[in-house]
Amino acid sequence: MDTIVILTILVVIFALAFDFINGFHDTANAIATSVSTRALKPKTAVLMAAIMNFVGAITFVGVAKAITKDIVDPFTLGNGTLVILAALISAIAWNLITWYFGIPSSSSHAIIGSIAGAAVAAGGWAILNYEGFIKILQALILSPFIAITVGFLVMSLFKILFKNFNLYKTNKGFRSVQIGTAALQAFTHGTNDAQKAMGIITMALIAAGWQTTDEVQGWVRFACALAMGLGTSIGGYKIIKTVGGKIMKIRPVNGVAADLSSASIIFGATLIHLPVSTTHVISSAIMGVGAAQRVKGVKWGVARKIVLTWIITLPISALFAGVVYFILDMFF
């Protein structure tokens, strides 16, 4: 069998594996607040998130096209399938490491950093599409700050609107609302995160000469959505523990505020075809909500640990992808 064919098949397999891992790695973020407030039982929350992730993933393709062409040009990328395979191996390794230690790192940072690192290793710095790459970096960097601000404002508004309401009844009502906001959160997660694997597979098909446009084929959309949904069905309870309880003590009103804030930002990014880190956005929204509730109530030590992981993910995954590319190049 031709080497290009083998590499392309491997890319598809690893891309679906990345989506599957992304499902159980990042889904925890989408349902963490609803589980921690006991609005939903873990199994129910995971099942609901799996369905909503699938629906979200199969509905949109704008982010997939951005991944396909905005980091590097797949039509001019030499050794394209090898570059993409190296990037996937790097991103999957980082996701598994951070999942094992229960750290809510970013799958988006991992895959984007890995694509850039492997591409530079193959073709030098000139290979990067700097305009598109910087646009993606700006979205990744700015979205957590926007999430903190929106989370703070939404929670502040809730405090004003419900200050004279009975606390027990208010929390009971918000616990019911959380079922809907958790479903919305999972849907928006699917609209943005699953598309990254779609974009990667499309890149590989272009690099292999099997496709001449950046259109995402139907079977790619379905396969990636299914992989994301199946991964979601497994769940990531270690990360639920970190996001849902270690950043701050979450009550139902806080959970609704955080879910609405982060879902609106993620879906907004999807509509303008920009990949963002759902992990960053959700964790940041919780920090903003916590700060509006009580600044000292946020466990800033845990928050600092999370932020540090955000910062190091992109350069580490880029460096690791470059190393993986050189190793694969020796064999292929």
Automatic annotation (TrEMBL):
InterPro entries the record matches: Phos_transporter (IPR001204)
Membrane topology, as annotated, equals: Multi-pass membrane protein
Q: Does the keyword Membrane apply?
A: yes
- Alphabetically list the UniProt keywords: Membrane, Transmembrane, Transmembrane helix, Transport
Q: Where in the cell is it found?
A: Membrane
- What highest taxon heads this organism's lineage? Bacteria
Q: Which Pfam families match?
A: PHO4
Q: Please tell me where this protein is predominantly located.
A: membrane
Residue ranges annotated as transmembrane are 6-24, 45-68, 80-103, 110-128, 140-162, 219-240, 252-272, 307-328
Is Cytoplasm among the key words of this record? no
The protein's matches in PANTHER family, at most eight in alphabetical order, are given as: PHOSPHATE TRANSPORTER
**Name listed for the protein in its UniProt record:** Inorganic phosphate transporter
